[in-house]
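pinging the channel bc i need a second pair of eyes. not urgent but kinda urgent?? the chain im working w is below, pasted from the shared doc
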Amino acid sequence: MDREQCEKIHQASLEILRKTGVRVYSDEARALLQDAGCLVTDGNLVRIPPAAVEWALAHVPSTIALCDRGSTTASVRLTPGESSFGPGSDCPNYLDPKDGARRPFTLADLDGCVRLADALPEISFLMSMGIPRDYRGNAYRRQYATLIQGSRKPVVFVCNDAADCRAITAAAAAVAGGTEELRLNPTLLLYSEPTTPLSHSATATEKLLFMAARGLPVVHSPAPMMGSTAPVTVAGGLALGNAEVLSSIVIHQKKRPGAPFLYGSGLHHMDMKTSISVYGAPEFQIARVAVACMGRYYGLPTWGYAGHSDGILFDEQAAADAVFSVQTALLSGTNLIHDVGYLEAGLITSPEMMVFTADMIRMMRHFTDGFGMSSEDLALEAIHAVGPGGNYLGEEHTIRHFREMWQPELFDRQRFDSWQASGSKSLRARLREKTLEIMASHPGAPLSDPLRKEVEKVLEL
C-alpha cells in the first residue's frame, strides 16, 4: 500500500468513528473520551471527532524496547527494520512430539515449551503457548510464573482482568528491581483486544487503562473476521479494524500521553464452507501486509502473525503455511510477530512446528537481508587473479566469505547414496529428533530461588 491508499483507509476509519462511533462500557474510558471532545449518547455510544484521533496519534511513541529478564539492554527493538518472532498463546491442545498424539495441554507441556522456546535463538520473546488444563487455579498467573521462571526472554502476556494485570506486573517489577525499573526496562507487554465490531468491553478497557497508567507497553489488537464480524472485503475489514485501534489509542493516550502502544489488527476471514477463522490463506497474508502498512503510515511499531497453519498435523500443509507466513512477515517489515507453533488455527501448540519455523526464520532472514555491493563483494581482484578457465575454491576471497552462506539445520543436501548411508531420514524424522533432543537437554534459564518464591507470593499461587 502506498501513502495515498493508507490515507484512504485512515479517512474511512475517521468517518466510522465520527458517524457510527464505538460502544464503550468502561465509565472511566467514557469520561476520558468526553474530555477529549467526543460525544456520548445512548448511555455508552461514543462518537469520536478526527481531532481527538490526530491528538492521540501525535503522542504515541514510535518505538518500543523490550528487555530480557535482569537486563537493561533491549533484546527486542520494535522499530523500523527490526522483526522479532515468538510463539502464540492459550492453545487448549498439544501435539506431542513423542508420539504424535493430540491431547489437552498440561502444565508440564508449558514447562517443556518454555525451555524449547528459550533454546531457539530465532525465538525472541515468549507467550503462554497453551492453557494448562490440569491446573485448577488462576491459569493466566501460573502461565506467567512459568514463563518468567524458565526463561530470560521478554514475555507477551495475556490475562483475564485488571487484577491479573496488577499481579503479573507486580511480579515482573519484583524481578526487575521495582516499578520504575520495569517501566524503563520493560520485560513484558500485554496482549488484549477490543471486541469487534466497534465495542470496548469494560474488562478489556480496564486492562488497557491499567497498562497506560503505568507506562508499560500494550498491544490492544482487534480481531475482525471478514464476512462475519467485519465486511467481507479486505479494505472494509481493514477500515473497521483500524477504527477500533484508533479509538483504543485515544483512550490509551488520554490516560497517559506517551505511554507505549503497539499497533495491530488481527484481521481474519471466515471460510464460508466451514465457518472457521482462517490462518493459512493468501487473504490472511494480504491482511498482514496491509496492517503493517497502516502501522508504518502512523509511525508506530506493528504486531503480526507467522509460523501458523490451519493444518491439524505438522505436515506439508503446515510447512508451506509456515514458510509463506514468515516470508510475508519479514518482507512487510512487521515488528513483533507471534503465533509460531500454532496448528489447527490456534487450537494446537506444536513444538515441532516451532522448531521448523525457527529454521525457516533463519533462512528467510538470509533471503530478505539481500546481498552486499561493496568492492569486496564485487570481488574484482579475485576475478582478475583467477582469469578465464580457473576456479575460486582456493582463493582467499572464498575463504573469507564462504561461511556467510546459509547452512540448513533441517533440510538435507546430501545425494542419494550418502543420504541412504546416513539412515534415509525424512525431514519429519530429523525434525522430531531435533525437537525431542532440545526439550530433553535444554535447562532453560531458571530464576533464582528467592525471586522464584517472590513471584509465587506476589501472584498468590
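so The radius of gyration is 24 Å. and The chain has two domains: 64-369+448-458, 375-404. — does that match what u expected or am i reading it wrong
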